[in-house]
Amino acid sequence: MTETASGPARGSRSRGSKASKGLRIERIHTSPGVHPYDEVAWERRDVVMTNWRDGSVNFEQRGVEFPDFWSVNAVNIVTSKYFRGAVGSPARESSLRQLIDRVVRTYREAGETHGYFASPADAEIFEHELAYALLHQVFSFNSPVWFNVGTQQPQQVSACFILSVDDSMESILDWYKEEGMIFKGGSGAGLNLSRIRSSKELLSSGGNASGPVSFMRGADASAGTIKSGGATRRAAKMVVLDVDHPDVEAFIETKVKEEEKVRALRDAGFDMDLGGDDITSVQYQNANNSVRVNDTFMKAVEGGERFGLRARMTGEVIEEVDAKALFRKMAEAAWACADPGIQYDDTINHWHTSPESGRITASNPCSEYMHLDNSSCNLASLNLMKFLRDDDAGNQSFDAERFGKVVELVITAMDISICFADFPTQKIGETTRAFRQLGIGYANLGALLMATGHAYDSDGGRALAGAITSLMTGTSYKRSAELAAVVGPYEGYARNADAHNRVMRQHSDANGAAGRVDDLDTPVWAAATEAWQDVLRLGGKNGFRNAQASVLAPTGTIGLMMDCDTTGIEPDLALVKYKKLVGGGSMQIVNNTVPKALKRLGYPQEQVEAVVAHIAEHGNVVDAPGLKPEHYEVFDCAMGERSISPMGHVRMMAAAQPFLSGAISKTVNMPETATVEEIEEIYFEGWKLGLKALAIYRDNCKVGQPLSTKKWDEKKKDGAETAEGPQAGTTERIVEYRPVRKRLPKGRPGITTSFTVGGAEGYMTANSYPDDGLGEVFLKMSKQGSTLAGMMDAFSIAVSVGLQYGVPLETYVSKFTNMRFEPAGMTDDPDVRMAQSIVDYIFRRLALDFLPFETRSALGIHSAEERQRHLETGSYEPSEEEVDIESLAQSAPRHTDAPEATGTRPAKKAGAPAPKEAHSSTELAEMQLGLNADAPLCFSCGTKMRRAGSCYLCEGCGSTSGCS
User: Fold this and answer.
1) Which entry of 93, 201, 258, 368 is annotated as an active-site residue?
2) 364 catalytically annotated
3) Are residues 425 and 277 in the same domain?
4) Do residue 220 and residue 309 come from a single domain?
5) Most confident of 731-735, 753-757, 893-897
6) d(C-alpha 639, C-alpha 592), whole Å
7) What is the mean pLDDT of residues 108-124?
8) Is residue 869 part of a domain?
9) Which intervals hold domain Ribonucleotide reductase large subunit C-terminal (predicted)?
10) Which of 255, 470, 700, 869 is buried deepest, with most CB atoms within 10 A?
């Protein structure tokens, strides 16, 4: 693709004498004399984004210009997140052309200023190729580039930061300040607190030290107060402590104790959901915690030996602990609350290119960036599906040559950005400019593997992922060596040259030792081998421009910008997707990768169509017509009946890790039934397999967010919930209670109510069990034979059957009140003067007639008399006489309160059932699979987020819970 002053790069064209300075840029996608913008069809669209829960408009900009092949989601995300200028003002960007030009022209200008290009013609090719790749969603820079580059504000390009703190109050206060400024800018930071002396050591004055756990409280409160980037999401941060720190046990237990507090407060009636009013009283919730273990500790665990905890000031062993018991405490804490994660110190530093300048002690919040303290990393990710080729004969291949050329282009741009970038602190700016850490990565791996007929948890899938990762990193360092010949190696290279070249040999050796599996990965391995040979040759001659080249980041918002089906290294979420339509509305579609996979596996077109139809109906491939059972694994996803095993995720991480400069942002999800021993096994295997970091999440281990990934199970053991503590060494027995219908007797008491809502008249008959509450509802509208009347008939039958199967009335009330559609408006009921729809009125009326005061009051439903009482006395509470009557009514047994006797199933708490209408792929998967996803709701638009690496991503508005 290029050549430098030291000679042409392999596969490039020669353009001039060897004496010319700067890179020669070869065209990849563009043609001379034709701008990339002129090769696509553009159209105008209106972007109106609402919070579906209350109908409020979150963002509106009309008439924005995008290529016609961009999806609604991608257009919405880019317009709302990345266009600069006040909405409604002439300065506001309104076209993707303006956004790309703002960024790309800044990069070109900086590249020309700092001598990156051999000629103005090369600079123009660079600009056009960069614009083409961004326009066609081949890759994307990380969000700070789109936020800041080419604007009047500081041009921060990095999303990932690592800070440092020493054992002094001045340094600790600097930590609070620096972290706060990074949060304010919308990014995240991590640091290691192990330099701070423990609470078991003395101060110079003779008193006891506070210890790092104490200082974590102040930093946690600061992070919870400063809304990241001025948004409503909390800040992203990572706190690391070495395993030999004397306070490590207190560090491990911090979140466990707080989770116990959350449960107690929740049971006492406080709002402890994520974002709830009372969750802020809980400490240590704004950070991810990780313990940094070393090989000495892990070998002590393996051998059942003692392990020494060392004083921070002298390095002396001040306490010995049972290594296996300490490791067990880590696993128990992770079982209970998902923290701490684990980082493998010796593995991390074994792959460190700059050890003479300091050890790697910490990571960014998502754990993919690991390098020197007080440094930063800017990220960019490639869309792997853009490099999958199908020839006329139906054969597939990965376009390794074009992939390598795009990697060279992107690495060049990323390095240029450091020349003009601004940084949040002077120390971070100095370190980043001296070591020039980059983080190229990719997205859509899960989709690529499925499309090529590879199971995510398979030798073939891991081989292809490893080959692509090796080619990406090898090509990146090759380009870094070429850049070093043009603009010089990074400042810290001379001091670290031996170590840097040693790590390059380690990567090359890992590439040579990797297994080749099939016709897809073998050519990619060959290209990667050639790239690593160039790295060793050119690096030994020129040095390297960058101390770090690659990581695997979450690719949250930018993944949506590129219309990726999967983020980072993650597998596909589910086989059926939620898709927004240009004209408004939405639809569910079977993943486009499914037909590709079936075709790759050799199925004829008619069978492909039959399998796709089965998936559309059932959400999975089990018993799909004509599909061989041995091919089921190709369609395994993160959620569903056939979900990927936790160790399958670990093995995929291990396949990519030897070919990455940094690490991988990923959380290994485990089922609620996972044991402490299984978590120990995963943490131990992560070390054995050569991972740099690992975190797990056991489903439903946290109270502070809506979590439940399986159908409702009633689990009791000796009268206590199993969630109260891990049952070590035991197998938990799960009993599934199936609902049993309880029919009403022939004669049943009932109430008939006539009503009018917005001019539409109707009648409701509500029949009850003689002693057991509501059991049947009939609804009749005045115009017989109309569509509305027919739908209300069907609706009332469905509700009646649900009530007889044990669904509590309060569940229906919570779901159907406030639902908006016509007819709506004034009613003739004095207790319900306004209704947003007929079903809103019906369930408010039923609540008033059949629910006790406390239950409907919690739902905000009161009678006219109660509202009048509130105006007069300030309280909705009924009189003593009314209380006595209600007490008598509630003393009668209800059939939903005794599942053991009746066989009915207890209802989930409000908010737990899967949504009745999907607003994202996660919610659609919940509906298809009959379960709830392990994900919080988006603060901005209310939709269920989905996992992206170790963060969460909202498909509706692009918000993330992490640092990107």
Assistant:
1) 368
2) yes
3) no
4) yes
5) 753-757
6) 18
7) 97
8) yes
9) 158-697
10) 470
